[in-house]
């Protein structure tokens, strides 16, 4: 293991790692429950296409929070390096996974599919970068995260037309929480900065989950 990799893997204190593990451990449990609710909603009110979209989204949520929890819990083990790559890669998966039901259920059509495919291509590129160069290109990865997150602005008009106002509000709030949390992610000399970032991520996930679920109900039932 290189010195740069070692510094990344041992960056946090024990107290910080406990906080990091707990915050996203809670997220993992909520994600599992959330996936069950999504599958039930799709089964009762939707169809197989809705269920597939929800499964992609729900599984991406679980992967992010579970891999993050394991990465921060396995301090001092060789498995930690593997879960670090999974943890960073899962961010790309969650962004693309979140787009999938938003674009394909609410927007669909050429625009919905184009945005979704573009986001998944970016996610694959980001994952390859993370798996091959985990300790390099941090700024590039961060740029891709943010660019992917706000790529939906290219479909802003259609989103406003098809997503109800209360769902849209939580969609925007979630995006702001995700983006705002980046400030703490890069604030390395702030104690517990990573745990604080985790809280922003958790808040963003909750907002986006609510937005996706309520916009689905609105489309199907109203």
TrEMBL record:
Q: How does it sit in the membrane?
A: Multi-pass membrane protein
Record-annotated residues binding Zn(2+)? 72, 194, 198
Which spans are transmembrane here?
A: 21-42, 48-66, 86-105, 111-133, 140-156, 168-187, 199-217
Keywords annotated in UniProt: Membrane, Metal-binding, Transmembrane, Transmembrane helix, Zinc
Q: Name one GO cellular component term.
A: endomembrane system
Lineage, top-rank taxon, reads Bacteria
Q: Of which family is this protein a member? A: Belongs to the UPF0073 (Hly-III) family.
Species this protein is from: Candidatus Magnetoglobus multicellularis str. Araruama
The subcellular location is: Endomembrane system
What's the protein name?
Hemolysin-3
Q: Which GO terms describe its molecular function?
A: metal ion binding; pore-forming activity
């Amino acid at each position: 293991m290189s010195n740069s990799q070692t510094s990344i893997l041992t960056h946090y204190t024990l107290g910080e790692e406990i906080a990091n593990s707990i915050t996203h451990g809670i997220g993992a449990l909520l994600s599992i429950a959330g996936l069950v609710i999504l599958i039930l909603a799709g089964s009762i009110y939707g169809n197989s296409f809705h269920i597939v979209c929800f499964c992609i989204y729900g599984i991406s949520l679980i992967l992010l929070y579970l891999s993050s929890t394991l990465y921060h819990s396995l301090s001092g083990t060789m498995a930690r390096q593997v879960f670090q790559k999974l943890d960073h890669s899962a961010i790309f998966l969650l962004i693309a996974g979140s787009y999938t039901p938003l674009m394909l259920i609410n927007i669909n059509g050429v625009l919905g599919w184009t945005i979704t495919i573009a986001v998944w291509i970016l996610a694959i590129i980001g994952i390859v970068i993370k798996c091959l160069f985990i300790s390099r290109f941090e700024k590039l990865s961060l740029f891709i995260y943010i660019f992917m997150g706000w790529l939906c602005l290219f479909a802003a008009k259609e989103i406003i037309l098809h997503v109800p106002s209360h769902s849209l509000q939580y969609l925007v709030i979630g995006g702001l929480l995700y983006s705002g949390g980046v400030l703490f992610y890069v604030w390395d000399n702030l104690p517990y900065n990573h745990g604080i970032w985790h809280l922003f991520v958790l808040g963003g996930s909750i907002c986006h989950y609510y937005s996706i679920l309520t916009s689905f109900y609105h489309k199907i039932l109203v």
